[in-house]
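tool=predict chain=A
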Amino acid sequence: MRGGHLVLESRSTGRVLSALDAVTGLDGVQTRTPSLEDVHLELTARRNPLAPNPQEQQA
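tool=predict ok
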């Protein structure tokens, strides 16, 4: 949930929307296809190499 909204990510959008329609209806549903920028950020996002690693802190 984000700000009172449910966010779903799926590669099977048609099946998800069909199931959602069968259960609750599609009133207020919005879909969005990732932009080229979204894909680029997903593929190139790197964790800050200077940030502490939480797994190392637990050891």
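The mean pLDDT is 79. Residues 13-23 form the longest helix (11 residues).
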